[in-house]
Every structure is written in structure tokens, then in C-alpha cells.
Specification:
single chain, 881 residues, six-stranded antiparallel beta sheet
């Protein structure tokens, strides 16, 4: 369906996880669903993110819907040749020569090749490997999408007298007794005599056999030339009946004569609107998944990815995926390759940038063979379609300048130029003015900005704050090399915890000349030369923040490999490899050589250079650098490990792919979270792809560290208007009325009293008081029923103040669970309800912060109480030691 196909490769090991078992289905209990706004990427192409919080964790769906009745088409995507693999992002870019691909997902299972068929634009590109349990997604020439099992196609060649059935088209299995056709989709050339088996190759050009070779040089493959390769008994079969000069015709299987598109997949999951009773292929467990559904009227195709293998996202079973597809409207459905291969990419018409919509489980893109692309069909004479208001932020301050512009796309969902003078701006709900492409709010509150442009309208909600209590400057400390640039960003913080970015030109800066020069319009600081340090001063509306800054770094040599430096180890433990210092093999002098053999394992493999005497580094260390000879690194991952004073280790990446020849200098930034002193104790090559099996070596030389000078400055206290916990007092009217107070305290850690309060809800003195158990950083894992009760209560939209006492610390093991708590409570704050959450703390002093408008109080264990009370409809609180 439209142009887009390029090419592929072959093998016998599956890329996803393929554990055969009986069908399993563990039903989950939904707690809360979050649905993003629906984004339109092209005519008939929409995207939505759906996250469901369940008693077993989060299920994260990304859903693309394709209306086949619109100006849109589906296309099979591969790399330039069928022998190549690449990431989904790169495959899309290689196929997107016209810029009309808007989305794609991964499809077929694979090992050394794809397992299923590949057909595009009515042409068969590659046949299935013949495993009956694998289904395909197909589109007929009539435009009808369907799922079917087409694993034993009857393709043949004939010279008009004799006919020979082909075992495969463009698959690498030249073993046993097989006849395989290789064309220009396969590679630049045929195998020739490069394989172990004896092979006869017949070179067919312009429909005639031009030459026959046995174990000869490879033939060049082109648009009008292909090769018929035979091994085993098939050699004699064709050489006895085919001759140079014979006219050859390829007769394709009847299934593909009326097929516009076909891509391989796994089991059919949904048939006739129901979960298939017995899956042809069972992949046990809860994993990341990619699936496709077809609506009952076959006018809509639904693409789905489900994330998994993270702290938050748990993955799903095949049965759960089938039910998800049905819930989204699927009447037929298929499972594509999952696990680390699951990925969905799309290109917004507003940004034109291709981005990954889901969270690949390996935190990086796996290289794959095939994908299903979504391509828009352009119409002639496109017109203005939509406009959109562009603002860096919608949470702003009174009297601050915020740039505001309009973008436009046409009916082809391509960007259009805008005449700014023709845009009509207005704002409601608040007061504000529009000047020179900027919006300046003149009052606080919620507002709606509206833009009108040649009959099209766009709106943007804004929230305007009035009282800033702190000027936040980032970074909070600056260490720079000479003649280096550093972007400085500024925000204003409200008492309720909102942090709102402002433009650099609104802040007054005092920068000593010994540090460098500062551009107040852009916020760019350019360091000078020499070694200096000073205090930078930034001010806005009576608020002042001081930042220590230092200029100048030194490069410290860590290891030059002129003396014994390291030892070797590997993962898996017995994987072959070695480490040694080689005289005159380094960038200058000796170098450290790590040899490896990744050829006998499918798991993640690594070859380690373990440094015997790591040199200690201080907190001013900015980066680690080294020279690496990449000739035989074979595109593996070059990493390092730093271990700090607390025993915490972090991995650095010097190069994601060692894919260069000769020497190359590489650097890796050192995280600023490490506790000094720390040291680089390991350098290693790693490979996670089970298909990359090879051996080689890499040479490392002159490992160094870029170190900033320690700052020794007495930084003045910042000028703020922030209130601390000790600034709040109970009125005398309620101070001694115990039955009208909510009192929160936590026993000391060594107390015999039970620390964790049971879940409860009380109404005391006009306050809704909850106790909730979040032991070990999770409410859900202690009891998902707590969530149900809390959400049920929140949905009533209570007006009286709420105090929630947690049993454990503020840190949530699942970050999304913590975010959800403050999102729901913050919604109540927006409606006028006063909400406080109290957590126990190991500190000596109580502290007060805000998140989404919710008061977050950290209360020391065994030290005093937090008292809440209401007087004249106002909530008061006080920490009493």
C-alpha cells in the first residue's frame, strides 16, 4: 500500500522471548485510568496514551488508530537490504524519503531473518520460514485488512517446460536440499561460494539465464537480475533441466497475487470479536507487547504497544493483550514481537520530529528487521487546516514577559508559514496585553488565551501567579573550563511549591569580570581564562540568590598503561577473553588491550578491564576521557564504572557503538550525585543483542579526568520570602481544645509501639483525617484497597480540609504511584480544598514543602507532634516539640 519497502535478513532464534506454555491470564483490578488528549498526526491518524493503575501496577498503552477511509495508507518497512537490521527510528528515516511517514511499530519475530512473509505494494519480498504457529497481518488489493496464517506458500520458477517449487524467497537457509531465490531486496550480491555447503547459482537477468556457477564468485543483484541458488539434491534437479539462455518465469503463490501488503507476526489473538480459545503460539508471562487490531467493519486498524519490565510498568500476558485490543474496538487481532523489540514511533505535524512514544524495556532501541509504517497520502492544493498556540509554559507570573506565537498546518498536515500581523489575540478570565510577540499578564488567576487566524481558532489555558517567594537559579553551583559557555536558567517559586520559569532578561545579574562575560538576553555565561572563583548575584523583585562559581580545570592522568594496570574478568563467567598491556600498541607508548569472544552466548555479554589501583577523584571531577582503537570493536558498547565512597556504582558510556577505525578520543560526563572520593575501577565492552556474536579486541590508552578546582567561598544567605514550618501557629481559640484537633506524631524508631498506622478515615473537628500504610515505599503493595477508598472519597469532592498521615518515608518505589497521589490531591486543592500529607522523617527538625499545592510535612520520629485545627473556617497548624 504505497511505496516504502526496502529490505531484510534471516535465522532460527527468536528476537522476542518465546517460552511455549499454556495460555495464561491473570486478571488485574483497575484502580484509576489516565487518558491523554487525542493527538492527530495525519488525516485519519490519531494517537492516545492510556495508563491504567491496577492492583498489580501500571499498564501503559500507546494507541494509534488508522482510519483506512481517509488519506492514509499502510506500508511494510525494512532496512535497505533484507540482510540488514536497524533501529525502528532509523528504518523509518531510511524509508521516509518523501517525508510522508507519520508513524510505525515493530512487527515480525526474528532470529537471523524474519520468520514471516514480507510483501509490499503487491510484490512478494520474502516468504515465511514455514512455522505454522505464526500468523501475518495482511491487506488485500481491495484494501481490506485481515489476519491469516500463510506459512507454506507455493512459489515456483519455470522455463516453460519444467517447473521447480521454491523453498524460500530471500531467506538465508541454504542447507539440506533447498532451492532459494535471491533478488535485489536481499543484498548487493548473492552468496556464491562463501558458505560451507556446495551451492549452484543460476544468474537470471532480464528474464533469461545468463550464467551458472558452482561455488563461484557471488553475482551482483539488481532490479532486473536475481539468482536461483540450489543445495543438496536440488542442484542436480535444476542443472539437468535448466540451461543458459532459458527464459525464466516466477509464479507466485495465489495468496500473494491479490495481496497488497503482508508482514509476519505471532499468534492471532482475537477472532470474531472474541479472545482466541487456544493461541497458536504462547509466550508466557507479563511482558512488553506490540499488537494490532482490526475493527469489525475493517475500516480501522489499531496499533498498540504495552510497556513492561520497569519499576512502574508490569507488562501483560497475551490474553490480556487480546482483551485490551477488544476493549479498543478490535474484531480481529494479532500479537507482534514483544519484549525489547516493542516500540512505537510517530512524527507530530507540529514538530516534524520522529519520537518514540512508548518506553522500550531496554532503555534503548533494539535493532529489528521489519516494521509497519503509516503513510499519509497528499492531496493537491492543501489549505489551512489547524492552528496552535505555542508557549514555553502556561504557568506564569504577573508582569512577566512570555513569548507567544502561532503555528499552522495544512490539510496535508504539513507546516504552513504564518503572517504574525494577521493573528488576532485576546485573553479572558484575567487581564493581559500582547506586545511584540509576547504576552504579559496583568492580573492573577486562571485565563484563556485565544488566537484567530483566517477563520481558524486556537486556545491555550494559562495560570497566573502573583506572589513569588524565591528566585531559583540553575545550576546552583558553576564550575567551568576556560572559554566555556554555560546556560543559566531562572525560575520563581511560589509558597505553594510551583516553580515557574522566567526569561533571563527579567533578572538583574552581577557577574565579576574574573569569571567571564554574561549575556542577560540569553542567560549565557562565557568563562574567561585563568583560574578564578567568585560569587554571582541574581535578583528579581526583592528576591536575591547567590551562586558560587569557579573557572579553570586541570586534566589529571589516571592510567597510561606503561606499567601493569588491570586484570580481566567476563560475563558470563567463563566467556573467553583476556587483558594485557602491549608495548608500543597504545596511542602513545603502551596500551591496554581487552580481547573478547562473544560468539558462544545469547545473553548479555561483557569483557572487563578491572583496574587494580583506581585513583581517587574528588567531587569536582567533570568527566573521564580516554583514547580507544576501534578497528575490532565491532559496534559493541564501550563503558566504564565509577564507585563512590558509599559503595554506589554508576556506569558511564564512552561510546554506544565502537564503529570507527583508528584512534578516537572519547569522554563521559561524571554524575554530580556521587559521594567523593570516587574512582574509575572498570572499563569494559558489552553487548546485549543475542544476534551479535563475534570476537575481537579494543585497545585503551591515556585515561584521564577533567577536574574543577574546589570552591572555597563564603556564600551569603539567599533573600527569600519563604515561610518555614516554625512560622505557623495555632490560634489561642483552639490551642487547648483537644477534641477539635488532629494530632499527628510518629514514635521513635526504637519504640515498641507499632509505627505503621492501619488505614483509617475519621472526621475530627471539621477535618477529614486519614492514616495510610505506605511501608517500603508503596501504598498499593501494602493494600490496593487503600487506593480505592481514597479515590472514592476524592470523587465526592470534599470541601473540608484533609490531613493524610503516611506510615513511611516520602520516597515512593514506584515514582508514578507517588505522582498519582499528588495529582489527585492537587486536583482537590485546585477546587479549594486544603490538603496536607504528613510523612515520618529521620531529621531533627520538621519541614514544610509543597507539591501540586499540597502541603508536604516531614515530621521527625519521636520528636513532637503536628497539630491541625480549624477556626472560623480556616485551617491552622503548628509543630509542637
Amino acid at each position: 500500500m504505497k511505496n516504502g519497502m526496502k529490505k531484510l535478513i534471516a535465522s532460527t532464534v527468536l528476537a522476542g522471548l518465546l517460552v511455549l506454555s499454556s495460555t495464561s491470564f491473570a486478571a488485574y483490578d483497575p484502580i484509576y485510568k489516565q487518558e491523554s488528549a487525542i493527538s492527530t498526526y495525519a488525516d485519519g491518524v490519531t494517537h492516545q496514551n492510556i495508563r491504567t493503575f491496577t492492583n498489580e501496577g501500571w499498564i501503559n498503552l500507546n494507541v494509534i488508530r488508522i482510519d483506512l477511509t481517509k488519506n492514509v495508507s499502510l506500508t511494510a518497512l525494512t532496512d535497505d537490504y533484507l540482510t540488514n537490521r536497524d533501529t525502528l527510528t532509523n528504518i523509518v528515516k531510511k524509508n521516509d524519503l518523501g517525508g510522508n511517514l507519520v508513524a510505525a511499530i515493530n512487527t515480525d519475530f526474528f532470529g537471523a531473518s524474519t520468520l514471516g512473509n514480507v510483501a509490499n505494494d503487491g510484490k512478494l519480498i520474502s516468504t515465511s520460514v514455514g512455522i505454522d504457529e505464526f500468523a501475518s497481518f495482511n491487506v488485500a488489493t481491495s484494501g481490506m485488512p485481515f489476519v491469516a496464517y500463510i506459512n507454506s506458500p507455493n512459489n515456483a520458477i519455470t522455463n516453460g517446460t519444467s517447473t521447480f517449487t521454491l523453498d524460500y524467497i530471500n531467506k538465508p537457509y541454504l542447507t539440506e536440499n533447498r532451492l532459494i531465490l535471491f533478488d535485489h531486496n536481499w543484498s548487493k550480491q548473492s552468496y556464491g561460494g562463501s558458505i560451507e555447503a556446495d551451492v549452484v547459482e543460476m544468474y537470471v537477468k532480464d528474464g533469461y539465464i545468463h550464467e551458472i556457477r558452482t561455488n563461484g564468485a557471488p553475482f551482483e543483484l539488481s532490479e532486473n537480475a536475481y539468482v536461483i541458488a540450489a543445495v543438496g539434491t536440488r542442484k542436480a534437479e535444476i542443472t539437468q533441466k535448466l540451461r543458459v539462455g532459458d527464459a525464466i518465469t516466477v509464479n507466485y503463490d495465489v495468496n500473494f497475487r491479490f495481496m497488497d501488503l503482508s508482514v509476519g507476526g505471532g499468534a492471532q489473538l482475537v477472532k470474531d470479536g472474541k479472545v482466541v480459545t487456544e493461541f497458536s503460539q504462547n509466550i508466557n508471562g507479563k511482558h512488553p507487547r506490540t499488537g494490532l487490531g482490526i475493527s469489525k467493519d475493517r475500516k480501522e486498524v489499531i496499533l498498540v504497544t504495552v510497556d513492561g519490565r520497569t519499576n512502574s510498568y508490569r507488562g501483560v500476558t497475551q490474553t490480556e493483550l487480546a482483551n485490551i485490543l477488544i476493549g479498543l474496538g478490535a474484531y480481529e487481532g494479532i500479537n507482534f514481537d514483544g519484549g525489547g523489540s516493542s516500540q512505537m514511533v510517530a512524527k507530530s505535524p507540529w514538530t516534524t520530529q520522529l519520537s518514540t512514544l512508548n518506553y522500550p524495556s531496554e532503555q534503548s532501541e533494539r535493532r529489528i528487521f521489519t516494521a509497519l509504517g503509516v503513510e499519509k497520502i497528499l492531496v493537491e492544493a492543501p489549505e489551512l487546516n489547524h492552528i496552535q498556540i505555542e508557549m514555553k509554559q502556561t504557568n506564569i507570573f504577573e508582569n512577566t514577559t512570555v513569548p507567544v506565537t502561532v503555528s499552522a498546518i495544512d490539510t496535508n498536515y504539513n507546516a504552513m508559514s504564518i503572517d504574525p500581523s494577521a493573528v488576532k489575540w485576546s485573553v479572558s478570565g484575567i487581564e493581559g496585553v500582547f506586545e511584540n510577540g509576547n504576552f504579559i499578564a496583568k492580573s492573577s488567576g486562571k485565563g484563556l488565551i485565544t488566537a484567530e487566524y483566517f477563520g481558524k481558532t486556537a486556545t491555550k489555558q494559562v495560570s497566573v501567579n502573583r506572589d513569588a517567594v524565591k528566585l531559583v537559579v540553575s545550576p546552583a553551583q558553576i564550575k567551568m573550563s576556560s572559554n566555556q559557555t554555560q546556560a543559566i536558567k531562572f525560575s520563581l517559586q511560589t509558597q505553594m511549591g510551583d516553580v515557574i520559569q522566567i526569561e533571563p532578561n527579567m533578572v538583574t545579574a552581577i557577574i565579576p569580570d574574573i569569571i567571564g562575560t554574561y549575556d542577560s538576553a540569553t542567560g549565557i555565561l562565557t568563562s574567561g581564562t585563568g583560574v578564578n572563583q567568585a560569587i554571582l548575584e541574581f535578583s528579581y523583585d526583592g528576591l536575591t540568590t547567590y551562586i558560587p562559581a569557579g573557572v579553570g580545570t586541570t586534566k589529571m592522568t589516571l592510567h597510561d598503561f606503561e606499567t601493569p594496570t588491570a586484570t580481566f574478568s567476563s560475563y558470563p563467567l567463563l566467556m573467553p577473553g583476556n587483558y594485557q598491556e602491549i608495548a608500543d600498541a597504545g596511542h602513545m607508548g603502551s596500551g591496554g588491550l581487552i580481547s573478547y569472544d562473544f560468539s558462544n552466548h545469547d545473553v548479555t555479554r561483557a569483557a572487563y578491564m578491572n583496574i587494580t589501583n583506581p585513583k581517587p577523584l574528588e567531587s569536582g571531577t567533570k568527566s573521564i576521557g580516554l583514547w580507544a582503537l576501534g578497528d575490532y570493536g565491532n559496534s559493541h558498547w564501550l563503558r566504564g564504572r565509577i564507585t563512590d565512597a558509599n559503595g554506589t556504582s554508576v556506569n558511564l558510556t564512552f561510546a554506544k557503538n565502537v564503529d570507527w577505525t583508528g584512534w578516537k578520543y572519547l569522554t563521559a560526563e561524571v554524575p554530580n550525585t556521587l559521594v567523593a572520593p570516587f574512582a574509575l575501577d572498570r572499563i569494559y565492552l558489552a553487548e546485549a543483542d543475542p544476534l551479535l556474536k563475534d570476537s575481537g579486541y579494543i585497545i585503551i590508552d591515556d585515561v584521564d579526568a577533567v577536574v574543577s578546582h574546589n570552591l572555597s567561598l563564603n556564600v551569603p544567605a539567599n533573600v527569600t520570602r519563604m515561610k518555614g514550618i516554625t512560622d505557623y501557629r495555632l490560634p489561642d481559640a483552639i490551642r487547648n481544645i483537644k477534641d477539635k484537633q488532629v494530632r499527628v506524631n510518629y514514635p521513635a524508631p526504637d519504640s515498641t509501639i507499632k509505627v505503621e498506622p492501619a488505614y483509617s478515615k475519621q472526621f475530627i473537628g471539621g477535618i477529614h483525617y486519614f492514616t495510610m500504610v505506605n511501608k517500603d515505599g508503596s501504598i498499593r503493595q501494602n493494600s490496593a484497597d487503600q487506593w480505592k477508598k481514597l479515590i472514592e472519597f476524592i470523587n465526592v469532592n470534599p470541601q473540608s480540609p484533609i490531613v493524610i498521615s503516611m506510615s513511611d518515608s516520602y520516597q515512593f518505589k514506584d515514582r508514578l504511584e507517588g505522582d498519582l497521589l499528588f495529582e489527585l490531591l492537587g486536583n482537590l486543592v485546585d477546587k479549594g480544598t486544603n490538603v496536607s500529607v504528613v510523612f515520618p522523617s529521620t531529621a531533627q527538625q520538621a519541614t514544610l514543602a509543597h507539591k501540586n499545592g499540597v502541603k508536604v510535612i516531614h515530621l521527625p520520629r519521636g520528636t513532637g507532634s503536628m497539630i491541625f485545627g480549624i477556626s472560623q473556617n480556616n485551617l491552622y497548624y503548628e509543630w509542637i516539640k
